[in-house]
Structure formats: structure tokens, C-alpha cells
Amino acid sequence: MIVTLTANPSHDRTVTLAGRLERGAVIRAESVSSQAGGKGVNISRASVAAGVPSIAVLPAPADDPFVHELLAAGIDCRPVPTPGALRVNITVSEPDGTTTKLNSPGPTVTPDVLQALVEALQRRAGQADWIVLAGSLPPGAPVGWYAELVAALRGRGARIAVDTSDAPLRALVDGLDEAAPHLMKPNGEELASFTGGDAATLESDPVAAAIAATTLVDRGVESVLATLGPHGAVLVNADGAWHATPPETAVVSTVGAGDSSLFGYLLGDLRAQGPDQRLSLAVAYGSAAAGLPGTTIPQPHQVRPELASVRRLDLTPGG
Asked: Do residues 227 and 191 lie in contact, with contact meaning Cβ atoms separated by under 8 Å?
């Protein structure tokens, strides 16, 4: 079972344009769609679609339409009551796959709500294979809350995966010596934010990305799945490093592709697959999501891991 935490859930609205986005112009949208979203929620959606039990933990009023939508989709949603309306995130999608995101901050969370979220995860840690902490933190949460949460969950049964960015990611990295998650999923830009490397180089050069990811493994993270956009992904653990290139994909929207990649890796792990197979499944899920509109999460029949190409990387100098 996969338990997900979406600390800052959102109503995701996607505006699809027939042409290029032009600042200051009046543009007619081709379509507008809305979906209950957030990184953890996306992973729970993928999990349910693949027949893997999942529980989505998140702060939300119990009668919020967000909660009802997840329950209607067959997702076991366990909301922790919180005041204030959930945020709305807007994605503008252009025909060539370019996406522009406008994310609102979300309601301010209280210490009581944060503690209730911790307890909700601790209660389920013994029955879960993975607990995924995903996305941004809401206003009011300490930037080091994910690091504190990893420490509170370690040793309770489930393995812990974290996918976040900006200040919460830096705080997590700063606290790795005290409590490291089992899996981290940065992208090239996020790798650069704490290694000092160049984001464009890390995304385009899998060896450079793998070397950067090794710094996390050296500090106690068991595995690092670094997604590199059109350049695929690298996986690094104590046994080595691998790079996977995705199958050719007509990109429609990249929103949710990283979340799908993370689920693909977790699915491969639950199937006891080797690192190369876990990586190919991760890349296949991510590319399938990129070929779908809005935040649509791929169904298993849309995922083609056999089309991904995986190679082992030699990270020795001159290798």
C-alpha cells in the first residue's frame, strides 16, 4: 500500500490554448478543465488506476468538493479538518506542450493541523509499503517540517519517499545526517539548488546529474530518482547509477509527469523489480503522462516500459 501526503492540495484548473500564449493579449481558450490535484494526490490516482491500494492524507474540510471528487474516483481520502478554502492552481497549456503555471499559496495551516497530519501518517505507517511526502508546504508550516516528519516516521515500518523543492528541499538536505528518507525525487533544477551545479547542464547530462545525486546517497538516502525532462531520468543507489531515455512522445502537458515517474518507480519496487526495470517503468510513466492533457494520470495500458532504453553509468573519472 502507498500512503501519500499532499500538504498543500489544490484545485487544478487547466486552460488549453489553440495557439501561443501572448502576454497582454485577449486569448480564447480551447477548453478549461478542473481536477482535484497535488503531487501526493496524483500518485494516489496512479496507484488506484494500477490496482495498488492507496490512502491520500491531506488537510481539507471534510465536505470540500475536493474530498468528494477523490472519493468518487475511488481514492481513499482521509482529510484532516482545516479552516479556509483550498487553493486554486492554474496551468496554461500551449499546443507545443509548453505549460505556464500560476500557483496560489493556499490557506494558512495551524500547528494543530500539522500535528494531526503527523499522527494520521504514523497510524498508517505500519501497514504501508511506502509513505510519500510530496509537494510544497502550506503557509504557516515550518520550512523544516518535511525533515521533522521524516524523523517522526523513520522506523515505523513504511519506507519514505520525498518530492519537494525550494526551501523545504534545502531544509531536508540540511537534515539528512539526522534523518534521511529512503527515496528522493529531485529534477535537474532541484539538484542544482543544493549542489551548486548548473541546472541546464544537470538536466542534459545524465552523468553530471548522477554525480550530483550521489551526494545524497553518500549522506544516507538509499535511492535518488532524478527526473531530467526530455532527457529521461537517472537512478542512483549504493550499487551504482543508471540512465533511462524515454520513448518518443508528442508532449501535450508536462504537469503531473514527475509525479507519474515517481509512482512508476514505486510500482516497480512493489513488484520487486531490479533498478533498471524500476527506472524504465518510472520513465515510461512520466512520458505517458506528458502525452496526456492537463494533469491526466496515465492508465497502465498507456505505459510502455519496454520502449525505454536503460544503460548503466560509469561515474569513475574518465569512465
From this structure: no
